[in-house]
Amino acid sequence: MKTIVPSTRRGYVYVILAALFWAVSGSSAKYLFNSGISPFQLVQIRLTIAATTLCLWLLVRDRSLLKIDTSDVLYFILFGIFGIAAVQFTYLFAISRIHVAAAILLQYLAPSFIAIHAVLFFKDRLNRWTTLALIGSFTGCYLVVGAYNLNIVSMNMAGIISGVLSGVTFAWYSIHGEYGMRRYDPWTVIFYGLLFAALLWNILHPPLEGFFHAYRPAQWGWIVYIGIMGTLVPFGFYLEGVNLIRSTRASITATLEPITAGLLSYLFLNEVMAPLQILGAVLVIASIILLQLKQEFDLKAPALIRAKREI
Known about the structure:
The chain is mainly alpha-helical and 311 residues long. The chain has eleven helices and no strands.
């Protein structure tokens, strides 16, 4: 029987904790929207708190992580604007308009968009398994958003479009984030992405306007949670998990997020998904797992071929 080494077990624990923190963050954001806070205010507050907290933490932990080449400033500006700022807003706006679990599952279209990007721009082969995963993910999302009702008027199209865009922007974030992480520590990339994202949202929205409201203590509690425990802490857990169990296994494990978010939204927000929507969620998660397993197989295949030739 194969045993799991302690470091591997710890890696899974880190990723599971990250998924749980993100799931609670999504449900708590919906609570804040229901209580009168706008997505514009929350995204500004979240990014500002996260960027400020991470800056202070890096100053204490290792100031060298704040150093970047001036030639890379433009990269970080674009990464912050089109990556983190765009992802955060489209994700939160979708949550404000549609069910939390549906919004998160739409963002989980990102692996499918990455696969399409690889086919279009890097000439990757669109093989049987990739095609099956793409069909499954898009069919699943069709079911998740309830499009089978064919009642377009009753559907929140703004929320659905924003959810799909969150998947597109998260794919962009993932692809271009790899460039920065080849040159810098992941925390450096995340910090400058958050910094420029926060600056953007303090320009698009009146500077720090989101902070100057008479929020109740419970609202402030969830706001701080989203800024720190829903952003920085799970990012840290997820990065540590990836270092221990690789990105493929981490991505598959992270699919616990929409499952947990759906359960929390049902228990505390009375958001109920119909049987076909649940089927759609299963299809999306299964498609993500299939894409990630195929990616891991593609990475291992050359080594397996060489090993067979040597036998």
